[in-house]
Amino acid sequence: MKKKSRVLTIITTITLLFSLQTTVFASTGSADSEESINEKYGLPIVSYGEALSSSQKEETKKLLGVKENSKVEEIIITADDIVHYIKGDPRSNMYSSAKITRTDTGKGVIINQMTPENITEVTDEMYANALLTAGIEEAIVDIASPVKVSGHSALVGIYKAYDQGEGEKLDEERTEVANEELSIATNLAKKEGMDQEKVTELLTEIKKEIAEQNPATKEDIQQIVDEQMQKLEIQLSEEDRKLLYDLFEKMRELNINFDNVKSQLEDLANSVQEKISEAVGDKGFLQAVSDFFKNLIDSIKGIFS
C-alpha cells in the first residue's frame, strides 16, 4: 500500500512539473510577442475626454485595454473639438473616451461599450447608426467612461481620430447630419412612450427602406417615415415628425447611399429586436410574479372572509 502511495506521489509531482514548465514557456512566449502595426490604416487612436483627472485617465486606459507598451496614438478631446464637431457647449465637461481601430475585415462597425452603466444616453446602436451616416463603415470602437455621462464626447473623439488618422477624411456635411441624427435620437428617447431601442429601431428601419426604395423627392421621404412609424406603432407630435422629415431629406440631398451598409442595418435591426424581446420578456416575468402574489393575497383574504 505504501509503495502504491509513493508511485502516485511521484506521478503527481512529475505531472505538476510538466504543467509548470508548459506555463513558463507559454508565459515567455506571450511576453516576447509584439502588437502588429497596421501599415494600411496606422495605429489605433485613443481619444480621452479633457475633463479626466490623472487617475481617471489611467482608469480609462485600463478599461480600453491600453497597456504601458501598447502601440497607439493618443489625442485629447477639447472644448474646441466639441464645438467644431457637434456644435456642443464649450463649457461642457468631457469624460467619455474611445479607442478606434480602423479595419477592412468586412464586419462593419463594431461598438464595444466597456462601461455601459456609465454611458446613459447613447446606445451601441445609436453610435453605429451615427457612424454609418458619417461614412464610417469599417471600424472597431471601444467606448468607456469612469463616471456617468451622456456619451457624446466619445463620438467627438471618433470623428477627430478619423481627421487625424491616415487615409480619407470624413465628409463634414455627413458628420453634421450624423450629429443631428444622434441629437434627435437621444431627445426622442426621452419622450413619453419612447425608449432608446424603439427610437433606434425606427431610424434603422427608415434607412433600410431608403436603401430599398431610393426616394427621389421629399414627399417620398415623408411617406417612408410615416409608413415606418405606422408599422412600428409609434406616435410622435407634428414637430417631432417634421424633425425626422428634415433629417432624412438632408440625407437624400447629400446622396448618402445606404445600399453599401444594408447588411449592417440588418444587423442593427436584429440587435434592437433582441433587446426589445428581452425587455418584453422581463416585463412578462415581472407581471407573472405580480399576478402570483396578487392571487395569493386574494386566496388568503378568501379564507378569512
| Helix content range | 55-70%
- From the alpha carbons, calculate the radius of gyration and give it in angstroms: 26 Å
Structural class: alpha/beta
Unreliable spans are: 7-11, 13-33
Task: Tell me the strand percentage band.
Answer: 5-15%
Please tell me the total number of domains.
2
How would a crystallographer describe the biggest sheet? 5 strands, mixed
Can you count the beta strands?
5
Quaternary structure of the protein: single chain
Order of helices and strands: HEHEHEEHEHHHHHH
Mean of residue pLDDT values? 81
Silhouette: globular
Strand order of the main beta sheet, please?
A: 2-1-3-5-4
How many helices? The count is 10
The end-to-end span amounts to 74 Å
Q: How would you describe the overall organization of this protein?
A:
Residues 222-271 form a coiled coil. This is DUF1002 domain-containing protein. It comes from Cytobacillus kochii. By secondary structure, the protein is α/β, with parallel strands linked by helices. Strand 1 (45-49), helix 2 (54-63) and strand 2 form a beta-alpha-beta unit. The chain is 59% helix and 9% strand. The longest helix is centred in the last third of the chain and has 43 residues, at 262-304. It folds into two domains: 45-172, no CATH class; 191-305. A five-stranded mixed sheet has the order 2-1-3-5-4. It has ten helices and five strands. It has helices spanning 2-32, 54-63, 79-86, 124-134, 152-164, 172-188, 196-213, 218-231, 238-253, 262-304, and strands spanning 45-49, 73-77, 97-102, 109-113, 139-144. 33% of the residues are buried. It is globular, with a radius of gyration of 26 Å. Helix 6 runs antiparallel to helix 9. It starts with a helix and ends with a helix.
